[in-house]
Specification:
single chain; mainly beta; seven-stranded mixed sheet
Length: 117
């Protein structure tokens, strides 16, 4: 069982930056692929970034070059650095952990990010 707790959300002006954190409980964090998703009001949840157990990252075009995902296995934490934020980045951001070997997936409770002047 893995519990995920996101933090770091808040209100930021357009063009600003935020860093989200997702702390995982339990062992074997390094065996989980990690990802960030977001969901804006009235929209479906969408993928934002992911990082494999080996540290390979990937992003959709909508955030590529602005967002950076990273992980610190010693701290059981994954981060999402968000730069050049836009109003359309406003959403609840969720952290997801996936263990492909065992077919298990866990989600955090989400953290609100609001980009507004």
């Amino acid at each position: 069982q893995v519990q995920l707790v996101e933090s770091g959300g808040g209100l930021v002006q357009p063009g600003g930056s935020l860093r989200l954190s997702c702390a995982a409980s339990g062992s074997m964090f390094s065996s989980y692929g990690m990802a960030w998703y977001r969901q804006a009001p009235g929209k479906q949840r969408e993928w934002v970034a992911s990082i494999t157990t080996g540290g390979i990252t990937s992003y959709p075009d909508s955030v590529k070059g602005r967002f950076t995902i990273s992980r610190d296995n010693a701290k059981n934490t994954v981060y999402l650095q968000m730069n050049s934020l836009k109003p359309e980045d406003t959403a609840v951001y969720y952290c997801k952990a996936t263990n492909s070997r065992f077919g298990t997936t866990y989600w955090g409770q989400g953290t609100q990010v609001t980009v507004s002047s």
